[in-house]
Design a protein that fits this description.
alpha/beta, Isopropylmalate Dehydrogenase, 12 helices, 11 strands
Length: 337
């Protein structure tokens, strides 16, 4: 992709009011994205609170949906919120994608209610990249959009996840697996067993251009057993947060150990050039956020604690998904039932 191609696309709408460090870090990230990626950006939020925008266009929005607010009801009630206005910008052809580090439920609701669903999609799903050392990330979905699911939805998640893995990571024939408590088809909940039967039938494989490799366990999420791992949103979110918490604990423990004595600090100075790339590959700030698959427009959900760097990476993903026409590929893959 050239700078000219990026500059010719519609702007990416960045919700400046969403996230723990909004609006300062979000605006800083939007400015950096415009400068470093050559991507047109429009900021959405309260103009009086947006300082140092660097001349970026602003779509005014007077309301902010709090991080702890109920998503669906807030979107219906707060029609002039930054999230709703960002989604409307995509719907109305004013923006090519939306990015938010705000309330996840409200981000999903705004995208779903304003953009609508791709024809044939039963439920949108959050596709979250899980880092894999030395390889492409594992795409985990659903990571929290649908706490309760049925087998047909999970099969559709598999289709959408395969398309996403192919378009984002260039995997020609993604390996799709089902998250369970054992590798055997007889292991797992009734939902997992029913889904396994449907996935193993293979009718969906030709549509998605993927391979079903069976069940995987939680320990396989950061390995190369599968490119896409499918589960319900409750399980997926628990798995994701467990991984994040575990990685944070390990990093915190290492940093504390490295600073525990003069000898440890000297050793850390020697080891850090080798450990730094490892840390960066596991840092959620560098993943670029998760895409909400199934809505009729690109919606990227960034971590609530996103810094300016995370916003730059989220905009990068949004740009790539727009230019790669991922929504179009999904629409051509998902056949209305």
């Amino acid at each position: 992709m050239t700078v000219a191609e990026a500059g010719a696309m519609l702007p990416i709408a960045v919700d400046a009011m969403g996230g723990d460090h909004a609006p300062a870090e979000i605006v800083a990230g939007a400015r950096r994205a415009a400068d470093e990626l050559g991507v047109p950006i429009v900021i959405v939020g309260r103009p009086e609170e947006l300082t140092d925008t660097g001349g970026l266009e602003v779509i005014p929005a007077s309301q902010v949906i709090a991080m702890d607010a109920d998503g669906a009801s807030s979107v219906r009630r707060m029609k002039d919120s930054s999230l709703v206005r960002a989604a409307e910008a995509v719907r109305d052809g004013r923006a090519s994608a939306m990015v938010s580090a705000g309330n996840t439920g409200a981000t999903m609701a705004s995208a779903l209610l304003r953009m609508g669903r791709i024809k044939g999609v039963q439920r949108p799903a959050i596709a979250t990249p899980i880092p894999v050392l030395g390889s492409t990330p594992t795409v985990l979905l659903d990571a929290g959009a649908n706490a309760e699911c049925n087998a047909e939805w999970l099969v559709q998640f598999a289709q959408m996840g395969a398309v996403y893995a192919r378009e984002r990571y260039g995997i020609a024939e993604p390996k799709v697996a089902l998250l369970s408590i054992g590798e055997e088809p007889t292991k797992g909940s009734p939902l997992v067993k029913e889904t396994h039967k449907l996935l193993a039938e293979g009718e969906w494989l030709a549509q998605a251009g993927a391979t079903f490799v069976g069940n995987v366990e939680g320990r396989d999420l950061m390995g190369e057993a599968a490119d896409v791992v499918v589960t319900d949103g409750f399980t997926g979110n628990v798995a994701l947060k467990t991984l994040e918490g575990g990685l944070d604990a390990i990093v915190s423990g290492l940093l504390e150990a490295f600073d525990s004595s003069d000898e440890a600090r000297a050793a850390a100075a020697v080891l850090w050039p080798t450990l730094s790339p490892l840390y960066e590959s596991l840092d959620p700030e560098n993943t670029g956020g998760a895409m909400l698959l199934g809505t009729d427009g690109v919606c990227i959900i960034s971590h609530g604690s996103s810094s300016a760097i995370a916003i730059v990476n989220a905009v990068r993903v949004a740009r790539d998904m727009v230019l790669g026409d991922v929504v179009g590929h999904l629409a051509r893959t998902i056949r209305p039932g």
